[in-house]
Design goal:
Blueprint (H helix, E strand, L loop, with lengths): L11 H9 L19 E4 L5 E6 L5 H10 L2 H8 L8 H8 L6 E10 L2 E12 L7 E8 L8 H15 L4 E7 L3 H9 L3 E4 L6 E8 L6 E2 L3 H12 L2
Parallel strand pairs: 5-6
Antiparallel strand pairs: 1-2, 2-3, 3-4, 4-5, 6-8, 7-8, 8-9
Helix pairs in contact: 2-4
GO molecular function: acyltransferase activity, transferring groups other than amino-acyl groups
InterPro entries: Acyl_CoA_acyltransferase (IPR016181), GNAT_dom (IPR000182)
Protein name: GNAT family N-acetyltransferase
C-alpha cells in the first residue's frame, strides 16, 4: 500500500473541506494543540472521500452512533462485551484525549444521512516509567469492512505512535476475529495465544523508528524488551 499523504499544516482548502462537510466546526470549537499533521484525506476507487483525523470532543454522539450501527459481533470484538452504545461518560473518555498519551483517529464519510464516523483507531500509552509502551484498539463498521480501511487506519496509528516516541504497541484480539488477526500480521504484528485468557490473542510489535513496518521481534528479544518495559 502506498504511504499515506501527510499534511504538515492545515491549508485553507482543507479548512474549507472540513467546515463544508460538517466534519469540524472550527468556528465554535478550538483546540490549541490539535494535531492537524495527522489528518489524512483520500478517495476510494468509487470516488468516495474518506477523512481520517484526530477525534474531537464533539464527536461523542457520532461515535456512539457508529457503535450502535455495528453488528453485535463487531461490538464484542471491539469492547469484548455486547454493548449497545456509549454512555455520556464513555463518550467523554473516548473523545476528550490529549493527543499524546491518548490518541484516537476517526474515519468520516459524507452519506445521504449526513456525515458519519465509519471507523476509529486509538492508542493509550501504558503507565510505565519510560512511557514507551501503548495499547491499541481498532474498529471499522461492518458495511465498510474489507475495503482496506482497517489497514490504512492501523498504519496511520502506528506512524502517529512512532512519532510520539512509542516503541512497543500491543493489544488483545479475540480468537474468532480472523479478519483482525490477518490485518495484524499484514502490518507486522506477532500474534500469540494469551496464556491467561484462552479466547484472546496477544498482538504486539516493536515499531521501526525508521518509519517502516512494525517489527516482529524474536522470542528472546521480545522477552528482553518486555522485562525492560515492565521494570519499575
Amino acid at each position: 500500500m502506498r504511504a499515506p499523504h501527510r499534511i504538515t499544516r492545515i491549508s485553507a482548502a482543507l479548512r474549507r473541506l472540513l467546515i463544508n462537510e460538517g466534519v469540524v466546526n472550527l468556528s465554535t470549537y478550538t483546540i490549541r494543540h490539535y494535531p492537524t499533521h495527522l489528518i489524512d484525506v483520500w478517495s476510494m476507487r468509487n470516488g468516495t472521500k474518506i477523512i481520517a483525523r484526530p477525534v474531537l470532543p464533539q464527536d461523542g454522539p457520532m461515535l456512539s452512533d457508529m457503535i450502535e450501527r455495528a453488528s453485535q459481533a463487531s461490538r464484542i470484538h471491539r469492547f469484548h462485551s455486547p454493548i449497545n452504545g456509549l454512555t455520556l461518560a464513555r463518550q467523554r473518555d473516548m473523545t476528550e484525549v490529549d493527543y499524546q498519551t491518548h490518541l484516537a483517529l476517526v474515519l468520516t464519510v459524507a452519506t445521504s444521512e449526513g456525515n458519519r464516523i465509519i471507523g476509529e483507531g486509538r492508542y493509550v500509552v501504558d503507565d510505565t516509567p519510560d512511557r514507551h509502551c501503548a495499547t491499541f484498539a481498532l474498529s471499522i463498521v461492518d458495511d465498510w469492512q474489507q475495503r482496506g480501511l482497517g489497514t490504512r487506519t492501523m498504519t496511520l496509528l502506528m506512524d502517529a505512535a512512532r512519532g510520539a516516541g512509542v516503541r512497543w504497541l500491543h493489544g488483545d484480539v479475540m480468537q474468532d476475529n480472523l479478519a483482525m488477526l490477518k490485518l495484524m500480521r499484514r502490518v507486522g504484528f506477532s500474534c500469540t495465544p494469551n496464556r491467561n485468557r484462552e479466547r484472546l490473542i496477544d498482538a504486539e510489535a516493536l515499531l521501526d523508528n525508521a518509519g517502516g513496518r512494525a517489527i516482529q521481534p524474536t522470542l528472546k528479544r521480545r522477552f528482553r524488551s518486555l522485562r525492560h518495559f515492565a521494570r519499575a
